[in-house]
C-alpha cells in the first residue's frame, strides 16, 4: 500500500472502500442524537424532551422563499452571500494582515457578477455599480468573473461592521442594508435566508 | 549537505491564505510585502468553470538569475540551496526583481511599517528593523529555523519548529519540505509518485519548489 502520504487521501475513496454512505443533509445527526437523549431521559423518568423531539423536523417542509420577493421583472437578479475563508464568522475582519491576505481571494471587496450579466449592462471589472433592491441600494466595485450564475450576484458575507475598528473603514459591500428583516425568512434558530431580488446598473 | 526544497500539492491547496499570514507573522513581513501568497483565479467559461489556487514565492533556484544580476553580492545561494538576500549588502537597485521570472521579490519601502495606524504592535516592534528601508526582501525558506535545527535536535521537513512556517501552518497539508538530493526523502518520493514539476521549467533556473498536479 506504500507510505501513508502516497495513499489516496480523499475521504470519498475511503468511504467507498469502507462501505460508508454520506450523511444526509437536514441535520439527520441532530435527530439521531435527540432520540438518543430522549431514551436516556426516559431511563431516569423524565419526559419533557418528547415534545421538542416531536416538533423537530429532520426534513423541513418546502416553503416558497423566493416567492416572498415577488418584486416584478424590474429586479431581475438574485443577490446572495457566500462565506469568506479568511474571515469565517466575521469577528476578525478588523485584523489588517487578514484583510491583506483576503484581498487576494476572488470576490472580496466587491460584488461578483457573471461576465455575460456585466456585459449586458455595460459593466467592466472594477467599475462602480449600484445594487438596488426594493429596500435600498448600495454602491460597490464590480468583480466580473465566470464562476457565478448569470442570474445571481454575490456579496461575500460579514462586511457590515459599523463600529469595529479597521473593519468599519473597509468599505467592502454587505447585503445587510438592502435586505429586510423578516420573521418569514427567519427560522427557529435565528438563521435567515440570505437572498434578495436586485437590479444592477453602472454608477 | 542537503538541498532544501518544497513540494506543493495543488490538489490539496484550498486557497485559504493561511500560509500567507503565517509567513507574515513568523518573519515580521511588512504590510504590502509578501514572501509567499496564493494566487486565486478561475479558468473556463460558465457553467464549465474551475477555480484554481497557486501558492507562489521564491523558488530558490539552483541557477538563480537574481544571484547573477545582483551587483553588490547581497543575493547569494547557500550550500544548502537556500537563496538569501543579505539586508546589510542590498543597495536596493532592484535588478533582481527585474530578472526574477517568478516575481518573487518585493521592495521594502519603509523600515518600520505597521499594520495599525497609531504605531507598531509589540510583535511588530520586536521585528522592526529586520528589513531596512529601500532593500529587497523575499522568502528565506525560514532559514533561521533550519539553521537552528541541528542544535535543537530537530529535522527540517519533519519537525514543525525546524520547517518553514507556511508548511507547518497549511491546513490542508498541501506543502512539504525536505532534501531534494535525498532520493528517499518525502519530497523526492512525492515528486516521483505524482509527477511533480517546477514552474517554468523551460527557463532552466532549476527551482527548488515543485508542484504536484491537480
What layout of secondary structure does this protein have?
The complex is a heterodimer of chains A (203) and B (214).
Chain A lengths: L10 H8 L9 H16 L5 H7 L21 E6 L13 H7 L8 E4 H6 L7 E5 L4 E9 L6 E5 L38 E8 L1
Parallel strand pairs in A: 1-5, 2-4
Antiparallel strand pairs in A: 1-6, 2-5, 3-4, 3-6
Chain B lengths: L3 E6 L8 H10 L8 E10 L2 E10 L7 H5 L5 E3 L5 E3 L9 H5 L6 E3 L13 H6 L7 E3 L5 H10 L12 H5 L5 E5 L6 H9 L14 E4 L2
Parallel strand pairs in B: 1-9
Antiparallel strand pairs in B: 1-8, 2-3, 4-5, 6-7
Characterization of the model:
The complex is a heterodimer of chains A (203) and B (214). Chain A has 203 residues and is α/β, with parallel strands linked by helices. Chain A folds into 2 domains: 50 residues, no CATH class; 137 residues, Beta Barrel (Barwin-like endoglucanases). Chain A is built from 5 helices and 6 strands, in the order H-H-H-E-H-E-H-E-E-E-E. A 6-stranded mixed β-barrel of chain A has the order 1-5-2-4-3-6. The longest helix of chain A has 16 residues. Chain A is globular and about 65 Å long. Chain B has 214 residues and is α+β, with helices and mostly antiparallel strands. Chain B has 7 helices and 9 strands, in the order E-H-E-E-H-E-E-H-E-H-E-H-H-E-H-E. Chain B has a 3-stranded mixed β-sheet. In chain B, strand 2 and strand 3 form a beta hairpin. Chain B is globular, with a radius of gyration of 17 Å. In chain B, 40% of the residues are buried. Chains A and B meet through helix 4 of A and helix 1, strand 2 and helix 7 of B.
Amino acid at each position: 500500500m506504500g507510505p501513508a502520504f502516497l495513499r489516496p487521501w480523499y475521504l470519498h475513496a475511503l468511504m467507498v472502500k469502507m462501505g460508508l454512505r454520506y450523511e444526509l443533509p437536514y441535520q439527520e445527526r441532530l435527530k439521531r442524537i435527540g432520540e438518543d437523549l430522549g431514551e436516556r431521559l426516559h431511563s431516569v423518568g423524565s419526559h419533557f424532551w418528547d415534545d421538542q423531539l416531536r416538533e423537530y423536523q429532520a426534513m423541513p417542509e418546502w416553503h416558497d422563499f423566493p416567492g416572498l420577493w415577488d418584486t416584478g421583472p424590474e429586479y431581475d437578479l438574485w443577490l446572495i452571500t457566500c462565506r469568506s475563508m479568511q474571515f469565517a464568522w466575521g469577528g476578525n475582519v478588523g485584523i489588517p494582515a487578514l484583510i491583506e491576505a483576503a484581498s487576494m481571494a476572488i470576490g472580496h471587496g466587491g460584488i461578483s457578477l457573471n461576465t455575460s450579466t456585466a456585459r449586458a449592462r455595460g459593466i467592466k471589472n472594477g467599475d462602480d455599480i449600484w445594487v438596488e433592491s426594493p429596500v435600498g441600494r448600495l454602491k460597490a466595485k464590480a468583480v466580473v468573473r465566470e464562476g457565478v450564475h448569470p442570474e445571481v450576484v454575490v456579496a461575500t458575507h460579514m462586511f457590515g461592521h459599523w463600529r469595529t475598528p479597521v473593519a468599519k473603514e473597509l468599505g467592502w459591500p454587505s447585503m445587510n442594508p438592502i435586505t429586510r428583516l423578516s420573521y418569514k425568512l427567519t427560522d427557529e434558530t435565528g438563521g435567515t435566508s440570505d437572498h434578495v431580488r436586485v437590479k444592477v446598473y453602472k454608477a | 549537505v542537503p538541498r532544501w526544497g518544497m513540494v506543493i500539492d495543488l490538489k490539496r491547496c484550498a486557497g485559504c491564505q493561511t500560509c500567507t499570514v503565517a509567513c507574515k507573522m513568523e518573519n515580521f513581513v511588512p504590510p504590502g510585502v509578501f514572501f509567499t501568497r496564493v494566487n486565486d483565479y478561475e479558468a473556463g467559461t460558465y457553467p464549465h468553470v474551475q477555480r484554481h489556487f497557486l501558492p507562489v514565492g521564491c523558488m530558490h533556484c539552483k541557477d538563480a538569475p537574481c544571484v547573477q544580476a545582483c551587483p553588490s553580492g547581497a543575493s547569494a545561494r547557500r550550500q544548502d540551496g537556500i537563496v538569501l538576500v543579505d539586508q546589510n549588502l542590498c543597495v536596493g537597485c532592484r535588478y533582481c526583481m527585474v530578472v526574477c521570472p517568478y516575481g518573487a521579490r518585493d521592495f521594502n519601502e519603509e523600515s518600520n511599517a505597521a499594520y495599525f495606524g497609531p504605531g507598531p504592535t509589540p510583535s511588530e516592534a520586536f521585528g522592526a528593523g529586520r528589513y531596512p528601508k529601500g532593500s529587497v526582501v523575499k522568502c528565506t525558506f525560514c532559514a533561521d529555523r533550519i539553521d537552528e535545527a541541528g542544535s535543537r535536535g530537530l529535522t527540517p521537513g519533519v519537525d514543525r519548529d525546524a520547517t518553514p512556517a507556511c508548511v507547518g501552518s497549511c491546513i490542508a497539508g498541501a506543502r512539504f519540505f525536505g532534501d531534494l538530493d535525498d532520493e528517499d526523502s518525502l519530497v523526492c518520493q512525492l515528486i516521483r509518485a505524482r509527477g511533480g514539476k517546477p514552474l517554468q521549467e523551460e527557463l532552466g533556473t532549476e527551482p527548488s519548489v515543485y508542484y504536484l498536479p491537480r
